[in-house]
Amino acid sequence: MAQPQVPQFFGLIPTGHAPILTPTNAPTPTSLVYTIPVVQSRPFSHIVVFLVPGVELPPDTAASVYISLPSPGPSEPTFKFLGGIGPGKESAIFKISGLSNGNSSHEVDMDAPESSPAGDITIGISIEPASQVSAQMASLSASNSQALVVAAKPQQKPDTLVLAQRIIKNAFNFLASFSGNVAGGIEVVPLKAFEEWWRKFEGKVRNDPGFLERDGD
């Protein structure tokens, strides 16, 4: 039994664009390649991939979706797994902006200004065993969850003593310029200067509540 032709299986649309893109290449009967030019006048940040209505994948298979982003220099395309679609999940939306091309720390932002590097985005869709696609999706989900945990880790706040020292330092630096000597050589600071410091300090706390928690002068 001959395998169905992949180009009839899938639809792909960059968000905000129309019509449905047609494949540029079909390397094998079970794989399909799309090329999407990056045009700064028509930015997009996501792509939609879906199974064409009325089409069914072969039993026990699903479709893996891969992406290769434009590179700042000549290099072989490197494909990154985006996710999968198949029975029970016939469509998916994948975020494109901000992804690394896999060869370096270079990132492509479809919503960036005109000066951003342009090129072609390559999307690969491959029919693979459902178990293999599920394993890749589980690995991707675990990796994303770990990244979110790291990004959300709260910064350690300074203790009360450190905060008190920073408040005193702030007051001392402000009031030092108002000090003067009275009879007997006693150094004093006018009460008005303290009131002025407190007014400014209180305003800064309102505008930037965390400024005392940041290390620095």
Topology:
Elements: E1 10-14, E2 25-28, E3 31-37, E4 46-51, E5 61-68, E6 80-85, E7 91-95, E8 99-100, E9 107-108, E10 120-129, H1 130-152, H2 160-175, E11 180-182, E12 186-188, H3 191-207
Antiparallel strand pairs: 1-4, 2-3, 3-10, 4-7, 5-6, 5-10, 8-9, 11-12
Helix pairs in contact: 2-3
Distance between the termini: 75 Å
Instruction: Note the beta-strand portion.
Output: 25-35%
Strand order of the largest sheet: 2-3-10-5-6
Number of domains: 2
Q: Which oligomeric form is depicted?
A: single chain
Helix content: 25-40%
What's the total helix number? 3
Please identify the structural class as seen in this structure.
alpha+beta
Largest sheet composition: 5 strands, antiparallel
What's the number of extended β-strand segments?
A: 12
InterPro entries: Hikeshi-like_C, Hikeshi-like_N, OPI10
Domain Hikeshi-like C-terminal: 159-214
Domain Hikeshi-like N-terminal: 13-143
GO cellular component, one term: nucleus
Task: Please give a structural write-up.
This protein is α+β, with helices and mostly antiparallel strands. It has two domains: 6-130, no CATH class; 160-213, no CATH class. The protein has helices at 130-152, 160-175, 191-207, and strands at 10-14, 25-28, 31-37, 46-51, 61-68, 80-85, 91-95, 99-100, 107-108, 120-129, 180-182, 186-188. Strand 11 (180-182) and strand 12 form a beta hairpin. Helix 2 (160-175) packs across helix 3 (191-207). One of its GO terms (biological process) is protein import into nucleus. Residues 13-143 form the Hikeshi-like N-terminal domain. It holds the Pfam family Hikeshi-like_N. One of its GO terms (molecular function) is nuclear import signal receptor activity.
